[in-house]
Protein backbone atom coordinates (compact mmCIF):
# COMPACT_ATOMS: atom_id res chain seq x y z
CA UNK A 1 0.00 0.00 0.00
CA UNK A 2 1.38 3.38 -1.04
CA UNK A 3 0.78 6.14 1.52
CA UNK A 4 2.99 8.87 0.03
CA UNK A 5 4.63 9.58 -3.32
CA UNK A 6 5.93 13.12 -3.67
CA UNK A 7 9.09 15.17 -4.25
CA UNK A 8 11.31 12.15 -4.80
CA UNK A 9 10.06 10.13 -1.83
CA UNK A 10 7.67 7.17 -1.79
CA UNK A 11 6.31 5.49 1.36
CA UNK A 12 4.80 2.02 1.09
CA UNK A 13 3.59 -0.25 3.87
CA UNK A 14 3.28 -4.02 3.96
CA UNK A 15 1.90 -5.09 7.33
CA UNK A 16 4.59 -4.31 9.96
CA UNK A 17 7.25 -3.19 7.44
CA UNK A 18 7.34 0.25 5.85
CA UNK A 19 9.64 1.14 2.97
CA UNK A 20 10.78 4.68 2.22
CA UNK A 21 12.22 4.89 -1.28
CA UNK A 22 14.16 7.75 -2.86
CA UNK A 23 12.72 7.88 -6.36
CA UNK A 24 14.92 10.11 -8.51
CA UNK A 25 17.54 7.76 -9.94
CA UNK A 26 18.20 10.06 -12.92
CA UNK A 27 19.82 12.49 -10.46
CA UNK A 28 21.24 9.71 -8.28
CA UNK A 29 18.63 10.59 -5.65
CA UNK A 30 20.15 13.99 -5.00
CA UNK A 31 18.55 15.79 -2.08
CA UNK A 32 16.78 19.11 -1.67
CA UNK A 33 14.69 20.88 0.97
CA UNK A 34 11.55 19.62 -0.78
CA UNK A 35 12.81 16.04 -0.47
CA UNK A 36 13.61 16.62 3.21
CA UNK A 37 10.07 17.86 3.83
CA UNK A 38 8.77 14.76 2.08
CA UNK A 39 10.94 12.57 4.34
CA UNK A 40 9.51 14.35 7.38
CA UNK A 41 6.00 13.76 6.07
CA UNK A 42 6.85 10.10 5.48
CA UNK A 43 7.96 9.75 9.10
CA UNK A 44 4.71 11.27 10.32
CA UNK A 45 2.71 9.00 8.01
CA UNK A 46 4.15 5.67 9.19
CA UNK A 47 1.25 3.72 10.77
CA UNK A 48 1.46 2.75 14.42
CA UNK A 49 1.58 -0.98 13.68
CA UNK A 50 4.84 -0.64 11.70
CA UNK A 51 7.88 -2.06 13.48
CA UNK A 52 10.59 -1.89 10.79
CA UNK A 53 11.26 0.92 8.32
CA UNK A 54 13.52 0.24 5.33
CA UNK A 55 15.17 3.16 3.54
CA UNK A 56 16.38 2.56 0.01
CA UNK A 57 17.20 4.44 -3.18
CA UNK A 58 16.18 3.56 -6.73
CA UNK A 59 18.85 3.14 -9.35
CA UNK A 60 22.61 2.77 -9.07
CA UNK A 61 23.12 5.13 -6.11
CA UNK A 62 21.56 5.38 -2.68
CA UNK A 63 21.96 9.17 -2.70
CA UNK A 64 24.69 11.32 -4.19
CA UNK A 65 24.03 14.03 -1.62
CA UNK A 66 22.76 17.56 -1.88
CA UNK A 67 21.56 18.58 -5.33
CA UNK A 68 24.24 20.80 -6.87
CA UNK A 69 21.57 23.36 -7.66
CA UNK A 70 21.84 24.35 -3.99
CA UNK A 71 25.25 25.84 -4.72
CA UNK A 72 24.07 28.12 -7.53
CA UNK A 73 23.27 31.79 -6.79
CA UNK A 74 19.55 31.21 -7.37
CA UNK A 75 19.35 27.93 -5.43
CA UNK A 76 16.05 26.05 -5.52
CA UNK A 77 12.85 27.86 -6.57
CA UNK A 78 11.00 29.07 -3.50
CA UNK A 79 13.89 28.20 -1.18
CA UNK A 80 16.57 30.47 0.32
CA UNK A 81 19.89 30.10 -1.47
CA UNK A 82 23.05 29.38 0.49
CA UNK A 83 24.02 33.02 0.05
CA UNK A 84 20.68 34.15 1.47
CA UNK A 85 21.02 31.74 4.36
CA UNK A 86 24.45 33.13 5.14
CA UNK A 87 22.98 36.63 5.31
CA UNK A 88 20.16 35.69 7.69
CA UNK A 89 20.31 36.17 11.43
CA UNK A 90 21.84 33.49 13.63
CA UNK A 91 18.40 32.60 14.99
CA UNK A 92 16.87 32.34 11.52
CA UNK A 93 19.76 30.22 10.26
CA UNK A 94 19.53 27.93 13.27
CA UNK A 95 15.78 27.46 12.76
CA UNK A 96 16.22 26.69 9.05
CA UNK A 97 18.90 24.06 9.64
CA UNK A 98 16.89 22.56 12.51
CA UNK A 99 13.95 22.14 10.13
CA UNK A 100 16.20 20.38 7.61
CA UNK A 101 17.58 18.10 10.34
CA UNK A 102 14.12 16.82 11.20
CA UNK A 103 14.24 14.68 8.05
CA UNK A 104 17.24 12.87 9.55
CA UNK A 105 16.12 12.40 13.15
CA UNK A 106 12.89 10.39 13.19
CA UNK A 107 14.58 7.20 11.96
CA UNK A 108 15.86 6.40 15.48
CA UNK A 109 12.49 6.55 17.22
CA UNK A 110 12.31 3.78 19.82
CA UNK A 111 9.06 2.35 18.41
CA UNK A 112 10.71 1.32 15.12
CA UNK A 113 13.96 -0.18 13.88
CA UNK A 114 15.22 1.47 10.69
CA UNK A 115 17.44 -0.15 8.07
CA UNK A 116 19.29 1.69 5.30
CA UNK A 117 19.88 -0.49 2.24
CA UNK A 118 22.82 1.23 0.55
CA UNK A 119 24.14 0.69 -2.96
CA UNK A 120 26.51 2.81 -5.00
CA UNK A 121 27.21 6.31 -3.76
CA UNK A 122 26.13 7.67 -0.38
CA UNK A 123 27.78 11.08 -0.34
CA UNK A 124 27.35 14.04 1.99
CA UNK A 125 23.67 14.27 2.82
CA UNK A 126 23.34 10.73 1.43
CA UNK A 127 25.96 9.49 3.89
CA UNK A 128 24.19 11.29 6.72
CA UNK A 129 20.83 9.82 5.70
CA UNK A 130 22.30 6.33 5.88
CA UNK A 131 23.78 7.20 9.29
CA UNK A 132 20.34 8.35 10.44
CA UNK A 133 19.13 4.75 10.43
CA UNK A 134 19.70 2.22 13.18
CA UNK A 135 21.25 -0.37 10.86
CA UNK A 136 22.95 -0.38 7.47
CA UNK A 137 23.15 -3.20 4.92
CA UNK A 138 25.45 -2.38 2.01
CA UNK A 139 25.95 -3.71 -1.46
CA UNK A 140 29.57 -4.49 -2.23
CA UNK A 141 29.70 -1.45 -4.52
CA UNK A 142 28.68 1.00 -1.78
CA UNK A 143 30.87 4.07 -1.32
CA UNK A 144 30.44 6.57 1.52
CA UNK A 145 31.98 10.04 1.59
CA UNK A 146 31.50 13.17 3.68
CA UNK A 147 32.34 15.96 1.24
CA UNK A 148 31.04 18.98 3.14
CA UNK A 149 34.44 20.22 4.31
CA UNK A 150 35.76 20.33 0.74
CA UNK A 151 32.96 22.81 0.01
CA UNK A 152 33.84 24.96 3.01
CA UNK A 153 30.92 23.58 5.03
CA UNK A 154 30.42 21.10 7.87
CA UNK A 155 28.17 18.02 8.12
CA UNK A 156 25.04 19.50 9.70
CA UNK A 157 22.29 16.96 9.05
CA UNK A 158 22.62 15.04 12.33
CA UNK A 159 25.29 12.69 10.98
CA UNK A 160 28.28 13.56 13.17
CA UNK A 161 26.99 11.94 16.37
CA UNK A 162 26.25 8.51 14.87
CA UNK A 163 29.46 8.60 12.84
CA UNK A 164 31.62 9.16 15.93
CA UNK A 165 29.60 6.55 17.86
CA UNK A 166 30.21 3.98 15.13
CA UNK A 167 33.85 4.52 14.17
CA UNK A 168 35.34 6.68 16.93
CA UNK A 169 36.54 10.29 16.95
CA UNK A 170 39.87 9.87 15.15
CA UNK A 171 38.50 7.92 12.20
CA UNK A 172 35.42 10.15 11.98
CA UNK A 173 37.64 13.25 11.83
CA UNK A 174 39.84 11.70 9.14
CA UNK A 175 36.80 10.67 7.05
CA UNK A 176 35.19 14.10 7.30
CA UNK A 177 38.30 16.25 6.94
CA UNK A 178 39.64 14.40 3.90
CA UNK A 179 36.31 13.69 2.23
CA UNK A 180 37.69 10.37 1.01
CA UNK A 181 35.59 7.40 -0.02
CA UNK A 182 34.90 4.64 2.48
CA UNK A 183 34.24 1.50 0.46
CA UNK A 184 31.96 -1.32 1.53
CA UNK A 185 34.67 -3.60 2.93
CA UNK A 186 36.03 -0.85 5.18
CA UNK A 187 32.50 0.14 6.19
CA UNK A 188 31.85 -3.39 7.41
CA UNK A 189 35.24 -3.67 9.13
CA UNK A 190 34.84 -0.39 11.02
CA UNK A 191 31.20 -0.84 12.03
CA UNK A 192 29.57 1.55 9.58
CA UNK A 193 27.86 -1.40 7.89
CA UNK A 194 26.23 -4.29 9.69
CA UNK A 195 26.49 -6.46 6.61
CA UNK A 196 27.90 -6.30 3.07
CA UNK A 197 26.39 -8.45 0.33
CA UNK A 198 26.65 -8.68 -3.46
CA UNK A 199 24.58 -5.94 -5.07
CA UNK A 200 22.14 -8.45 -6.54
CA UNK A 201 21.40 -9.75 -3.03
CA UNK A 202 20.82 -6.40 -1.30
CA UNK A 203 17.02 -6.48 -1.38
CA UNK A 204 16.83 -10.09 -0.22
CA UNK A 205 19.30 -9.52 2.62
CA UNK A 206 17.35 -6.47 3.74
CA UNK A 207 14.11 -8.45 3.74
CA UNK A 208 15.76 -11.23 5.75
CA UNK A 209 16.98 -8.77 8.38
CA UNK A 210 13.57 -7.09 8.59
CA UNK A 211 11.93 -10.48 9.12
CA UNK A 212 14.45 -11.38 11.84
CA UNK A 213 13.72 -8.11 13.64
CA UNK A 214 10.03 -8.96 13.69
CA UNK A 215 10.61 -12.33 15.36
CA UNK A 216 10.95 -10.96 18.93
CA UNK A 217 8.02 -9.35 20.80
CA UNK A 218 7.69 -5.67 19.95
CA UNK A 219 7.85 -4.35 23.52
CA UNK A 220 11.07 -6.25 24.23
CA UNK A 221 12.70 -4.76 21.12
CA UNK A 222 11.53 -1.25 22.03
CA UNK A 223 12.90 -1.55 25.59
CA UNK A 224 16.20 -3.00 24.32
CA UNK A 225 16.62 -0.25 21.73
CA UNK A 226 16.02 2.42 24.37
CA UNK A 227 18.55 0.77 26.68
CA UNK A 228 21.23 0.65 24.01
CA UNK A 229 20.53 4.16 22.73
CA UNK A 230 21.05 5.58 26.20
CA UNK A 231 24.06 3.47 27.13
CA UNK A 232 26.67 5.95 25.89
CA UNK A 233 25.18 8.74 27.99
CA UNK A 234 25.13 6.70 31.23
CA UNK A 235 27.93 5.43 33.41
CA UNK A 236 28.12 1.72 34.26
CA UNK A 237 26.01 1.93 37.41
CA UNK A 238 23.40 4.11 35.72
CA UNK A 239 23.14 1.59 32.88
CA UNK A 240 22.72 -1.26 35.36
CA UNK A 241 19.88 0.66 36.99
CA UNK A 242 18.28 1.29 33.59
CA UNK A 243 18.51 -2.44 32.82
CA UNK A 244 16.80 -3.29 36.11
CA UNK A 245 14.01 -0.82 35.49
CA UNK A 246 13.43 -2.03 31.94
CA UNK A 247 13.47 -5.67 32.98
CA UNK A 248 11.06 -4.90 35.79
CA UNK A 249 8.61 -3.45 33.27
CA UNK A 250 8.95 -6.47 31.03
CA UNK A 251 8.47 -8.98 33.88
CA UNK A 252 5.41 -7.13 35.16
CA UNK A 253 3.94 -7.13 31.68
CA UNK A 254 4.63 -10.84 31.29
CA UNK A 255 3.11 -11.56 34.68
CA UNK A 256 0.04 -9.66 33.61
CA UNK A 257 -0.20 -11.74 30.43
CA UNK A 258 0.14 -14.92 32.46
CA UNK A 259 -2.74 -14.08 34.80
Structure description:
The protein has 259 residues and is of the alpha/beta class. The chain is built from 10 helices and 10 strands. The chain has a 7-stranded mixed sheet with strand order 1-2-3-4-5-7-10, with helices on both faces. A 3-stranded mixed sheet has the order 6-8-9. Helix 5 packs across helix 6 and helix 9 packs antiparallel against helix 10. The protein is globular, with a radius of gyration of 19 Å. 35% of the residues are buried. The model has no long low-confidence stretch (mean pLDDT 95).
Q: Given the helix and strand composition, which structural class is it?
A: alpha/beta
The helix/strand order is EEEHEHHEEHEEHHEHEHHH
Q: Which regions have little confidence, pLDDT < 50, spanning 5+ residues?
A: none
Largest sheet: 7 strands, mixed
Mean pLDDT over the residues: 95
Which helices and strands, and how do they pair?
Layout: E1 2-6, E2 9-14, E3 17-22, H1 33-45, E4 52-57, H2 82-87, H3 90-101, E5 113-118, E6 121-123, H4 125-132, E7 135-139, E8 143-145, H5 160-167, H6 169-178, E9 182-183, H7 184-190, E10 195-197, H8 202-213, H9 218-231, H10 236-258
Parallel strand pairs: 3-4, 4-5, 5-7, 6-8, 7-10
Antiparallel strand pairs: 1-2, 2-3, 8-9
Helix pairs in contact: 5-6, 9-10
Key traits:
single chain, 259 residues, alpha/beta, seven-stranded mixed β-sheet, three-stranded mixed β-sheet, 10 helices, globular
Short note summarizing the structure:
The chain has 259 residues and is α/β, with parallel strands linked by helices. It contains 10 helices and 10 strands.
Amino acid sequence: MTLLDTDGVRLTVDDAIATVTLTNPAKRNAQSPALWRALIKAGRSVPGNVRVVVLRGEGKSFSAGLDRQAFTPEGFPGEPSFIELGRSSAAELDATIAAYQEAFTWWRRTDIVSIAAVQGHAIGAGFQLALACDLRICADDAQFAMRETSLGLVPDLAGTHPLVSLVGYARALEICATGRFVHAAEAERTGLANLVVPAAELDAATQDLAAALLAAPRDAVIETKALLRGALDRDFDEQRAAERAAQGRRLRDLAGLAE
